[in-house]
Description:
Elements: H1 2-22, H2 26-37, H3 40-100
Amino acid sequence: MRNLIWIVVAAVIAGGAFLLYSGQTPQQVIEEATDAVTAPEALESAGDAVGDAVEATEGTVADAVDAAVDSVTEAVEATTEAAGDAVDAVTDAAEDAVDTA
């Protein structure tokens, strides 16, 4: 228990020394501490701004993904059609070769 009392006395002396050295009044120290505690309001507004940015980015990314899917689908359809045409051409050429032989 005596150690706890000494710790409290040391904390009071350290606090008094800080006030004496800094030239601040206890009211000024309390105001600065209050400002530091109310800083989460600024963090909330920053968090809201980040949330808005994420939502905007999400919409942009979704649009880009949709465009990429559409492009890939068109490319696959074109490739499938070209492969079908190539198969038809080879089949016709083989039939013509069989007919002439």
